[in-house]
Amino acid sequence: MNGTDPKSHLPKKPRLHSHAPPHSQPSNSIAPSDILSEFSHHDPSVARINNGSFGCCPSSVLSAQQHLQLQWLRQPDHFYYNQLQPGILRSRNIIKDIINADHVDEVSIVDNATTAAAIVLQHIAWAFAEGRFLPGDAAVMLHYAYGSVKKSVEAYVTRAGGYVIEVPLPFPVNSVDEIVQEFRKALELGKQNGRRVRLAVIDHVTSMPTVVIPVKELVKICREEGVDQVFVDAAHGIGCVDVDMKQIGADFYTSNLHKWFFCPPSVAFLYCRSSVKSSELHHPVVSHEYGNGLAIESAWIGTRDYSAQLVVPKVLEFINRFEGGIDGIKKRNHEAVVEMGEMLVKAWGTHLGCPLEMCSSMVMVGLPACLGISSDEDALKLRTYLRDKFHVEVPIYYREPKDGEVGPVTGYARISYQLYNKVDDYYKFRDAINELVDNAFTCSSLRN
């Protein structure tokens, strides 16, 4: 589905496969005009092809959230004692069903995947501190792990005495096998000199550059190689890729609900496999619920706004207005972003950053080499320039060229596709880059 009327907006080519024909829509399906209304609070002048960073929330869900906020402010004692915990439990039950967990007790709601990472890594640090893990035992994580998660590994695991190994991943990526081979090498390194690999941190969808990681295969390898615990950081998981706890088999799995699941910021879930002792897991903010289980601890960490955690039923109501529910939305977003990515690389004579089967609702698109992107700073300044001059919002990634490469693509844009996006958003981006190329622009002009 698209954010506008296909007849009045979409060009004949390229046709988005994500647009189902009208006769195939169920009677309760949402109309294009309804989508426009649900996201009318977005700035209409901006081609926002960066849903991956901050997500989006429909107006109907925002209204429900505001109603809850006012209920709290009107009579907070009543809300706290009679509504808050039952409401959070309803949200946890919905998440439990969506992710195919065995029991609601395996699901806690926290404010962000970053908080979930802190919970898991604090748990690992205590294992070192209490002598269950030995100094020098290893933790393995991907080189493209999210920056804050890397910092959390440093703050908790390295400081506690763990030996951290980063799995180097190629980019562009040509196949799943490349990732599997590098991961196996890292596990072997972690087991050298009699060490044990105590933890593997695996992204489900890396943020930048974005690639879908074969999590089920990597978790299986971890089990075969005797890794103690596996934590899947899936900040982009729910609503973006298939999320099934029984199939994935990780000990811990977290995903934000405000990125691809239409919740307001900020809310995430942390799944903890039932085999992990819940008494050993604690929220890093200690409240009077300490010791009552992670889910209960997380449901009250002091006076704050819990409304984002309570609107999950309203979000599900919004999602179920679409054919196929969240799976249908996810499929259409994937097909649309791939088609837009292919349109862009054809226009610029470049390539995508990975095979189509390793793309989610986000795709890495190679930018023309003549733009002269030669550092992370160049990438950030070009992103700012696109925002300020062309009203295009898209993250830019710098890839350091390999020795001997001639005229390499060093800059990639991470484009997203979500319900509110229009084909014109991607044409606007294409035309902005074409204008820069035609004007012989290079990033050197942005350097002070």
Automatic annotation (TrEMBL):
Amino acid composition bias (Basic residues), ranges on this chain: 9-20
Keyword terms: Aminotransferase, Pyridoxal phosphate, Transferase
Pfam family name, one: Aminotran_5
SUPFAM superfamilies membership: PLP-dependent transferases
GO MF: transaminase activity
Chain spans, region Disordered: 1-35
Domain of life from the UniProt record: Eukaryota
Domain Aminotransferase class V: 63-278
PANTHER family listed in its UniProt record: HERCYNYLCYSTEINE SULFOXIDE LYASE, L-CYSTEINE DESULFHYDRASE
Protein name (record): Aminotransferase, class V/Cysteine desulfurase
Annotated organism of origin: Corchorus olitorius
